[in-house]
Fold:
Amino acid sequence: MGNSSAATFGILLFYSLLMFTLPFIAFFATKQYIREHLHVTGFAQTAWSVGASVVVVNVIVFSYVWRAFREPVDPIESESTVGFSGENDKKTD
Structure:
């Protein structure tokens, strides 16, 4: 159980770091590229940079969810959570 918790924490830390760094990198890289190569400034430059950051955030969230869905289910953990599904709350008359 300790190894599983450490792996889960490691995955969460990895995606948290991605969420903190990649949108900033995308924003400033896009802003610089648009200014230097397309010669666009002002609102249009900021809007495209923000759009790039939003796309990066969505890709990170999608990959995190995708990884979570593809993770194998541990039969021991799934048996221990059966009581939380409401099955044991039925009245027995």
